[in-house]
Specification:
By secondary structure, this protein is of the alpha+beta class. The chain has 3 domains: about 120 residues, eRF1 domain 1 (Translation, Eukaryotic Peptide Chain Release Factor Subunit 1, Chain A, 2-Layer Sandwich); about 110 residues, Nucleotidyltransferase, domain 5 (2-Layer Sandwich), CATH 3.30.420; about 110 residues, 2-Layer Sandwich (60s Ribosomal Protein L30, Chain: A). It contains 11 helices and 16 strands. Strands 7-6-5-8-9 form a 5-stranded mixed beta sheet, with helices on both faces. A 4-stranded antiparallel beta sheet has the order 3-2-1-4, with helices on one face. Helix 2 packs antiparallel against helix 3 and helix 8 packs parallel to helix 11. The two termini are about 30 Å apart.
Amino acid sequence: MALTDEIERLSRVHSPDGVLSLYAAVDPTISYRRDHEIAAAKSALRGLEQTLSDEERPSLERERERALHFLEHERTEESRGVAIFSSQPASLWKAIPLNVRMQSQAFFGPRPRILPLAQMADEYERYCAVFVSKEDSKLFVISMGDVEEERIISDDVPGRHGQGGWSQARYQRHREFHVLEHIKRTLAGLNDYLSSRPFQRLIVAGPEEVTTQLVEVLPTTLSDRLIASVSCPPTATRDEVMAAAAPAIQDFERNEEESLLSKISGLADAGGHAVLGMDATLGAVGDGRVHELAVADGVSATGRECLKCGHLDAERLDACPRCGASLDPVDDIIERATERVYAQGGRVEVMFGDARESLIARGGLGALLRF
């Protein structure tokens, strides 16, 4: 299941008996640190316990033991981190491997804490980098900042050995024909992979002559996903392809964030279907009007929620300004807004870099609206 699908499913979970959300750093590439990383998760859980009431602690202990047993004895899939969501009364158990470095942190409340997961899903889309030379082509699927999968999709072009008794012209025509066939096979392999395991973005890497040929014949389904063509030597290794692709991915992500914020700002300032600022955005989330929520990385705030009409508010009010019902306190109103948007089928974009600073200057939150 795609990470965004997992987030949407988790956003619908509510358990009055409590949900443990544990983000644990467990990097298998540094094997001697395994015990240290488990200790970091335990430390995060101890810190969480100190913030809970005497009534809540037995419920946390129930979920804590299950989570730690998994980390110490059951976890088999290698990853740099894992997000665990556990609530035995709600029959919830989900352990999601995450191939990114993270800080161990723990939360306990009636709903899963999904904002850290949403930030990862937003920052690390699923990319496909196809390396193509005149001799072969390889597909690298990049997810969570690392190669999730690698496969050869075409590798039988003649030319790695001498041409024997062939004339140079005849051999060149023969080789050019096979290079074209090689590009066709590369396209077929990409299309097959896209159909079976969809990716959002495409990067073409390799010697400029060959990548130009490939880009020129990309069908619409692939050209619409193309974000960059980067130069690599014909003998490039996996690490060299990754190093060439990384700046293109980062530039694309930052440009997308700035473009979204510019669209939100323009529409909001003109009175269109967009809002900026904490109060206006929370109001739109409460009304179910948000199509895409923009959140500045690191922004958090306490707030209140009306369980009767759904109103969200960052103010410390006792009664709902809309329906008059009492308001429930919320530790992190940004987290709650994120959950609500996912549950309503919307999207969440976490802003980094310059876009983050610009959004903070406008209140830290903004949104494109459905109506």
